[in-house]
Design goal:
Blueprint lengths: L16 E5 L19 E2 L3 E18 L6 E17 L4 H7 L5 E4 L5 E19 L3 E7 L4 H12 L5 E5 L3 E5 L11 E18 L5 E4 L10 E8 L4 E18 L7 E8 L9 E4 L11
Antiparallel strand pairs: 1-2, 1-12, 3-4, 4-14, 5-11, 6-7, 6-9, 6-10, 8-9, 12-13, 13-14, 13-15
């Protein structure tokens, strides 16, 4: 085919990310870039080295008796890995670095914030934003306390947020003790019949002391992983339905730089016999070469 500079890609955008979820979590559907749903947690900032994808196979070469010509290559023991470095030391990356270890928090106080909707809503939606983290949007005007807790845990990448109160009027949001002191949420509303919405901190959280017994050997920590890439016009997504992340050798603690957590994602064979799904909306890759 003719030379086409549009096919030269440089992936790099604020929307690219790596996520993880328990096995069996629903995979987002097309069109790209459809958002990942409940259960998927973002690993946060990666360093500027990006990801390194490596495919390795054991090869045994077979030669013909007559003249020693190479007639076949037998391939076995295939492996497919992604290596990447995380810059955020958050609950998700920490859990991957310390698999199957339990964090015990002592001396902490759970943050409690109350969301109040003034007026009597009859329709519409509202949002809750945890500044610097994420926004839970599209919340129905009279969402139940249970549904709101699920939405906040998913959007904020946490586990253990609980909600009580009166649906459509007042919601008492309690963060897990391990979250410590949490910045106050902000809210916006587009609710028919409501005149205002506000958030107040009822009980400020107090950061506790986290203790983790780091285990020398752990069982398999199988999870699902999603990798989103974008170059401005073309989106590329990898879905690993059966994988495992392990610490990749060193954790770098640098006095004049950023702490870097190094990981390797091993992709295991899924029910389709594939390491992962490569999904994209790039017309240049739809040439039918492999048909």
């Amino acid at each position: 085919m003719a030379i086409n500079t549009n096919n030269a890609r440089s992936y790099g955008d604020i929307t690219q990310r790596i996520l993880t979820a328990p096995l069996g979590t629903t995979i987002p559907t097309s069109p790209l870039p459809t958002a990942f749903g409940a259960g998927w947690l973002d690993l946060g900032w990666m360093d500027d080295a990006g990801l390194t994808e490596t495919d390795t196979k054991q090869e045994t070469k077979k030669y013909g008796w007559q003249g020693g010509a190479l007639v076949r290559v037998l391939r076995s023991q295939a492996e497919h890995t992604f290596a990447f470095n995380c810059l955020e030391e958050n609950a998700i990356t920490y859990g991957l670095a310390r698999p199957n270890s339990t964090v015990v928090t002592t001396g902490g106080t759970a943050e409690v914030q109350t969301v109040t909707i003034t007026g009597t809503g009859t329709a519409g939606t509202w949002t809750l934003t945890l500044p610097g983290v994420a926004t839970a949007s599209g919340l129905v005007y009279n969402i139940t306390t249970t549904a709101l807790a699920t939405a906040l845990n998913s959007a904020f990448g946490m586990t253990g947020i609980t909600v009580t109160g009166t649906a459509g009027a007042s919601y008492v949001v309690t963060f897990p003790v391990s979250a410590g002191n949490v910045v106050q949420m902000t809210a916006t509303q587009a609710i028919t019949g409501a005149t205002a919405i506000g958030v107040a901190t009822t009980t400020p959280g107090v950061n506790g002391i986290n203790t983790t017994d780091v285990l020398p050997f752990v069982g398999r920590n199988l999870r699902m992983f999603g990798i989103d890439l974008v170059d401005g016009s073309v989106h590329k997504r990898f879905i690993c339905q059966n994988g495992e992340v392990t610490g990749n050798g060193d954790v770098i603690y640098n006095a004049d730089n950023l702490t870097v957590l190094q990981y390797t994602l091993e992709c295991y064979i899924d029910t389709n016999g594939a390491f992962f799904r490569d999904i994209n909306d790039n017309p240049a890759l739809a040439s039918g070469l492999y048909t």
